[in-house]
């Protein structure tokens, strides 16, 4: 599905907020982990099934409130082949709930992931293979141009001509029709990308509603923001309500 369909989903739900899903299994409720450990013993199977159960519960809670879900592929692939099965199952569950589904796999090419996950609406790619990375048919691609790992700046902030490397990569990927993923708590990074690419859709990870607000136009269009805290909440409905309300303080979708 194209990014325009994501924007339509945001309009329908009246919020540009997405559920981030892909928890550290050690932070899943102890009762859930214990249940599956008793069934399968210690190991990947128990961890994967705990993540499956947890993810389904989160999707059930989020479906009526949020626009989309962004699934962190790595969290599931750490559990091996069973983890991939869980990831595919959660993509299907998200589709059944009517959530636009992005798989944050950060692969070199979109096509293998989209072939393996035919119900995903979009995937993320690393931009340094060039335009080939964006081949996705009628589905969407988000190129990862900034990340928040500690050494990210060693590469992303190198100067390429008259600009930082991540800005050069962002411009190249946007020309090929990709959306852009920025994993940054710095409003300046988002402003720099938005200033050069005012029509490009942005997927913003690990930043507050206030920080993200500069990505939106006057109609609340142009970006999707993930909430990283809901998946760890004890009282999920309360945290969901609070997150949606906080976003509305900064962005009004019309």
Describe this structure in words.
It is a single chain. The protein has 254 residues and is of the alpha/beta class. The chain is 44% helix and 19% strand. It has an eight-stranded parallel barrel, surrounded by five helices. Helix 2 crosses helix 3 and helix 3 packs parallel to helix 5. The chain is globular and about 60 Å long. It starts with a helix and ends with a helix. The relative contact order is 0.14. The model has no long low-confidence stretch (mean pLDDT 94).
Radius of gyration: 18 Å
How would you spell out the order of helices and strands? HEHHEHHEHEEHEEHEHEHEH
Task: Classify the secondary structure makeup into a structural class.
Answer: alpha/beta
Helix count?
A: 11
Mean pLDDT: 94
Q: How much helicity do the residues have?
A: 40-55%
Largest sheet descriptor: 8 strands, parallel, barrel
Strand order of the largest sheet: 1-2-3-4-5-8-9-10
Which word captures the global form? globular
The N- to C-terminal Cα distance equals 22 Å
Unreliable spans are none
Which percent range describes the beta-strand content? 15-25%
Number of strands: 10
